[in-house]
Every structure is written in structure tokens, then in C-alpha cells.
Write a structure and sequence with these properties.
Length: 327
């Protein structure tokens, strides 16, 4: 079976964007692929973390993975920092990546603007650690949202470069964006920006652990337009189009179907219906989340087994690379 790699940083509460863009697809592909789902805690420390919250967020993230239906019997779930080969391969790939390539990464540019007090080398290096995550397992595909596309293109370039020097060492991974409508969920208050867990205004983000009242409040306040008609037009009606994307992704109904259904509906009623759809999905997820989250030793056990399985694959591959380079 082909290998799929995907990961999320446990830096804060996960968002509806993370869920719709990635997590919601994970359980459905488990039978068709060998799935490797990582909790990218090494990536998280590129921005400063409150260590108490960080510890909690890492386990919360794991419990969300499980609540979404990822089955540890079928898929490998592991904590990135528990498999040291990621850092080993990261260093090697550093030596095959150009400064200019990293300078072009749009996420680095925007993150260093927001984070101007702490533009550390880790933040700059971030995409190469991602490349190491992916290439270490000879992944066939990488499941991501739209914003990570440039990083995977870089990964492909690094792999090609390495292969052209030393033979067919790395599999060149394909980008896997399961659904273009769900690949970029936008901020509720500024629908031209991505919904992001690090947004300073929490009203622009739906968190997976938000309760029903909060969801209704945030959706009600979301920015739309003064036109009053519900249809998809990403340029002129970015807010409504984003809400349609969310509705479509969570219900499986097509945008066209929704446009027909809501032809005569007011924004207010549409938002109310959407808030209900979101809450229903989140309630179900949260119920399972709180169950798994309370099983501390079970969670630890899953991480132990996951790291063991991941390490086994990683060790084999890193040895090949070390041998090639006479290390
Ligand atoms: P992170 O935590 O920023 O995002 C995790 C995944 O969620 C997707 N995503 C979204 N999708 C749709 N709409 C949104 N608003 C939205 N926000 C986030 C992201 O595209 C991403 O797929 N650095 C990676 C984590 C990582 C990784 C990897 C991913 C580490 N190593 C190797 C793939 C392969 C990241 O963006 O995390």
C-alpha cells in the first residue's frame, strides 16, 4: 500500500481549518494507504511555548487524532520528538538546500512579520524539518492544506537534488490535497486570511473544543457583505464563500446544491443553520475527545507503540543515507 504522511503542530488548540483541511480526511484513507500521522512538536518550538500548556496541547492533539477516528491499529501515530532520526535527516538535508530557496518561503516571510521579536533559525529551517519528516518514511503522498503546498514543492526539489547526486534514494512525494474547497478555510473576521490557530483575535477562529454557544456567537459575527444573496464568488463574496465551503465540507453537500437550497434564505438564518452543522460535528468529536483524553496511560501507550514503529522505519532509511554519505 502507498504511504501517506501528515502532521499537525501541537501549538495551541486545533481549529476547524485543521479539521476540515486535514484531520477529517485521515480516518477515511486508513484502509487504502499506510498512514503515518505525526504530532510535530519540534516544529512548535519555532515559536515560544508556555511549557505547561505545550505539554497539555500535545496530549490534546493526540486525543483529537483518536477522536477523529484514526485507528492506532491501522495507522502509525507518533510524537515527532520521540524519533531522533528526524533531526539527523534534517541536518543532512540542510546541506543540500540553498539559503535563497528558504528565503522564498511565503510562510517564513509572514511568520517573521508577525513574530518579529523572535525570527530564530528554527523558523527559517522549518520547511527542511518538514522535508525530513516526509522523506524519512519514503512517503508517496503528503496530505496537507493549501498553505503547505510550497513546503512540499521544496521537499520534492531537495529530494530530486539528492537523487541526482546519489541515485534513487528518496521517493519523490506527491502533494495530496483531498478537496480544493476544504483546503483553505478562512478567518471569520477577515476572509482573505487563513483561519489560523495563532490568530490574535479568537473570534476569527473556531476551535475544535468550542461549545455550541461560542460557535453560534462566532458564526453570527462573521464578516459577510451587504448583498444579501447566498452564492459562491470567492472574489466579491469571500465571507459567504468561506461559510459555504465550511458548510459543504462538513455535510458533503456540493456548493451548487447549497446555493439552490439557500437561494431564498437570509444571512442570519444561513448562519444559524451553519452554526448548528458545526456544533453537531464538534459535539460528536468532543465527546470522543474527552473520553480519550481521560485515558492517560492509554495515550502514553499509543505514543510508545507509534514511536517504536516509526523508529523502526526511520532507522532503516537513515542508515542507507549515512552509508551513502560515508557518515
Ligand atoms: P499546522 O499545524 O500549521 O497545520 C496542520 C495542517 O492543517 C492545514 N491547515 C488548514 N487547512 C485548511 N484550512 C485552514 N485554515 C488550515 N489551517 C491549517 C495545514 O495546511 C496543514 O496541513 N508544518 C505543518 C505540520 C507538519 C507537516 C510535516 C505537514 C510538520 N511536518 C510534514 C506535512 C508533512 C503545518 O502546517 O502544521
Amino acid at each position: 500500500k502507498p504511504i501517506i504522511f501528515s502532521a499537525i503542530q501541537p501549538s495551541g488548540q486545533l481549529t476547524l481549518g485543521n479539521f476540515i483541511g486535514t484531520i477529517s480526511h485521515w480516518s477515511t484513507i486508513q484502509d487504502k494507504y499506510n498512514c503515518i500521522y505525526s504530532i510535530a512538536d519540534l516544529h512548535s518550538i519555532t515559536v515560544s511555548q508556555n511549557l505547561y500548556l505545550f505539554k497539555k496541547n500535545k496530549l490534546d492533539t493526540l486525543a483529537i487524532y483518536l477522536a477523529s477516528g484514526v485507528d492506532p491499529q491501522k495507522s502509525i501515530i507518533f510524537m515527532q520528538s520521540e524519533v531522533h532520526e528526524h533531526c539527523q535527516l534534517n541536518w543532512i538535508l540542510n546541506c543540500y538546500t540553498y539559503f535563497g530557496e528558504l528565503m522564498r518561503m511565503t510562510q517564513f516571510k509572514s511568520k517573521s512579520k508577525i513574530n518579529s521579536q523572535n525570527i530564530n533559525i528554527g523558523l527559517f529551517n522549518y520547511p527542511i524539518l518538514m522535508s525530513a519528516d516526509i522523506l524519512l518514511y519514503q512517503s508517496d503522498k503528503v496530505l496537507i492544506g493549501q498553505d503547505q503546498k510550497q513546503h512540499i514543492e521544496l521537499t520534492r526539489n531537495i529530494a530530486h537534488r539528492f537523487n541526482s547526486l546519489y541515485g534513487n534514494i528518496f521517493k519523490i512525494p506527491d502533494i495530496y490535497i483531498p478537496n480544493k474547497y476544504s483546503a483553505k478555510i478562512m478567518s471569520l473576521l477577515n476572509p482573505y486570511n487563513k483561519m489560523s490557530k495563532s490568530d490574535s483575535n479568537k473570534n476569527s477562529v473556531i476551535f475544535l473544543l468550542d461549545d455550541q454557544k461560542t460557535v453560534l456567537k462566532k458564526i453570527s459575527k462573521s464578516v459577510t457583505d451587504s448583498d444579501g444573496k447566498i452564492f459562491y464568488d470567492i472574489n466579491n463574496k469571500a465571507g459567504i464563500s468561506n461559510l459555504l465551503n465550511i458548510f459543504s465540507s462538513l455535510t458533503g453537500k456540493s456548493i451548487l446544491e447549497l446555493e439552490k437550497k439557500f437561494f431564498n434564505t437570509t444571512y442570519k438564518d444561513f448562519k444559524y443553520l451553519l452554526a448548528n452543522v458545526i456544533s453537531k460535528k464538534l459535539n460528536d468529536l468532543q465527546e470522543k475527545f474527552y473520553y480519550f483524553r481521560s485515558q492517560k496511560s492509554y495515550l502514553k501507550n499509543i505514543l510508545d507503540i507509534g514511536a517504536y514503529k516509526a523508529r523502526k522505519k526511520a532507522k532503516k532509511n537513515i542508515k542507507v543515507i549515512y552509508d551513502i554519505l560515508n557518515l
